[in-house]
Design a protein that fits this description.
single chain, alpha/beta
Length: 364
Amino acid sequence: MSDLAESRTGPAGTEALEPGVRPLVEVTGLTKHFDVSPPWLTRAVRGEGRTKVRAVDGVSFKIPAGRTFSLVGESGCGKSTVARLVVGLYSPTQGEVVFDGISMANLKSRRQMAPVRRRLQMIFQDPFASLNPRWRVADIVAEPIRAHGLLDDRQAVQRRVGELLEQVRLSARDGEKFPHEFSGGQRQRISIARALASNPEFLVCDEPTSALDVSVQAQILNLMKDLQRELGLTYLFISHDLAVVYHISDYVGVMYLGRLVEWGSASDIFRRPQHPYTRMLLDAIPDLEMSGRQRIPVAGEVPSPIHPPSGCHFHPRCPFANERCRLEEPPTIPSPAGDGEVRCHAVEERRLTEEVVQQALGRE
């Protein structure tokens, strides 16, 4: 782990820390609330107000061009909602997404959105559900080319589709088949080919390997890394699998109940995690090296985002929480591990000594 970790460079999205690398994507104060209230009449009879789910609560980060920023966390923490907000599938309740200096909030018409949408694409979790089962693969991959008017000549489109399929390690002849004729890994390759058809610069990958076998996961991850090197792509990678995140990420952001609790370079996050939640996620990884390290599963359950805990959202599950954690929302402070940031009162007050950590986790 250390060799790979040491190969990572820089923290997430700060130009001064990576000279010459511009932030392609900037997310500031991103917030999304979903109204899940019962019908008006039901609320009137019960005397209840509106009920809202705080799916994303003030998330901010930057992604330098040509890098991979991964969001990790348990199911329900808001990772996929952030992905959909970034590509414009959801409108934010508050906050802003800026792509290459262009605020997505200022794009009001379809004509204004078209040039930006061509430059960013999304790869979904379930490749079978995201591919039209009634279309041949060639038509699926060609759809972005036709939609954005990149090529007019039919033969040119066919040649381009063949090139894209071969680029993702399939055959041009596969274009004549239907999605159901392929395995899960092959279908995900088709999804990647479709995403590349519009010549994008930025790909949002929403758990693209979670539905695949481990061996197939490795193939897809290697393919994505190769494409990033060849095409200079920038990734926002969503995953709950830290092993996957470890192998593909330049930077990692850890989300909990709609908030980004820690972010930094992959090397800092994996070697010197600061937030107790990050430590617990890493402790839950199986010890493949058989070093005798004790596995500590993440205790408790994620609270409801409808009624999140006061103060630090993690305090009901945190072994280091005190009264301040229960009452005050932690500020964002520079991470002691490097150039990232962390939101934790215990880190700010320097209460997380190694002795305290080992004692709280029940180790000798």
